[in-house]
């Protein structure tokens, strides 16, 4: 039997409560920093890099009232979320024009820890509970030099909350499908430098569709120690998720009952048990140099029933990410230097009636990046990375006796940033990127075909303006890819395989476009946000030359507003528009495209003393739309629904 995370949370919180009266301390006010652009905490204005990094703070996250990370990200400009069931599970996040391979071309991080898998399964976003999120940083565009494998379309880094003064929070939420969500949080900082935070969440809901019940638990704990020359921390995450999966529906089935389970597979489900342990810290050698490092162990066990047959897959990942960060006198200013090594050792196993596969791989990378002042207002960013992967695959169909693969890739970046006054800056940069073939991609190819690493060159230019909380970012980009890796439903299947199609290297492709993001505090009460993305993702040559890559919307837009009626009451509304796109797999563009959709969500919060009441209406105008569409079927998403929450904060 699984231990109750509430028992764990309460036990962990007991010493905090006993110590609170003896060593209470005022909250620490931290300077606003951005870590994603350089992999270390930096004031964005003092170290300007040639990239657009959007920072979404805790106040905006709280105003939106989203229950899960997927719900929140889909309202961000330049981000396209594919959500099969509207639960925040079985989701993938794409930036800059990727469809079925989006989860392998957008890097998702939690405090710099990779969430992307070594197989094609999308990062499990439900590992990240909204209760633990302090802010979210979105780095738009390629970051192959700084982050390596899979940082092709962009990087999303979720920064979790560090413990502050003695306080706690408990809440109860209810949803339209007879579900409930319970959250408990406790944190404490002591005079001797120690601090701790624990949080727990339990959720159960039947969800919109039949046979789609979700039961999940999430426990997170962090203990840290600050000393004169640095910081050390230990983190533990435990996440359980039991989900019934109703499957895709045909057009006729959707017309008859969009909420029904696929009658061919009425018992499919997936259960995931994830454990993460992490230690790390920062040691300041001098006023100018520091060593930052994290050591992480992650294990995920996933029994499942798919197409009526039971199976199991297990993922294990060990990573070590040390880096030196320092400032060097240069040209009358300071040059920021970041040099590091990324180690990953992973194992993957799957056993089902369709396949049996074992895999181990090691990733090793060495990288360096410098941000150097050239003149007043003008800075240069340059960097390089060497990456190697050793991969051994044993697959009952493709490589029954085992096969070793060795890949090596070098990439570099070069960019200029010019701050020509305190409010305006322009930048341009070139960044090379790559991603290695994933385990189940390499093991599911046409006979005689071996996948090559995907490589690309990203060219980007932008202009940014900022004044008194208002901001404007305009980006244009071109991403030329060679050997883009994706699933092709028309390719010859592996010998003896159950499913049609295979993983292939596409003919050369090009992803190019324009993005505009704006933030505008109109007055003390009203704040507006908006974003628009034009994406043109096409094949450059081959049989599909000049045709659109399937399931990439050409136009997408987001708009949101928060209105604070008074100190106690506020309202938030968002509009999410996703334009037409060819259904997944239709790279020949011969079928009618999937319809565009516009979804409106609203959220209202009312505070009475230490109690906060929240009500969120999703899909206000009852849009009938799908989370994913392919030739095999679609996944209908929920109609209009209401979620409410009551929370008490103490002391």
In brief, what are we looking at here?
This protein is mainly beta and 651 residues long. It contains six helices and 34 strands.
Overview of this protein structure:
By secondary structure, this protein is mainly beta. It has a single domain, classed as Beta Barrel (Maltoporin, Chain A). It is 7% helix and 56% strand. The chain is built from 6 helices and 34 strands. The chain has helices at 5-23, 58-64, 69-73, 144-147, 251-256, 439-442; strands at 52-56, 79-83, 91-95, 106-110, 113-114, 133-140, 154-160, 167-175, 180-189, 194-205, 214-227, 230-244, 269-284, 289-306, 309-320, 323-330, 333-351, 356-375, 378-395, 399-419, 424-435, 454-467, 470-482, 485-488, 502-505, 509-521, 526-539, 555-564, 569-578, 597-608, 611-618, 626-630, 633-636, 641-650. The strands form 5 sheets. The chain has a 23-stranded antiparallel beta sheet that branches. β11 and β12 form a beta hairpin. The chain starts with a helix and ends with a strand.
List keywords for this structure.
mainly beta; 23-stranded antiparallel sheet; five-stranded mixed sheet; 651 residues; Maltoporin, Chain A; 56% strand; single chain
The residue ranges in which pLDDT falls below 50 over 5 or more consecutive positions are: 1-31
CATH homologous superfamily title: TonB-dependent receptor, beta-barrel domain
As for the CATH topology, it is Maltoporin, Chain A
How much helix, percentage-wise, in residues? Answer: under 10%
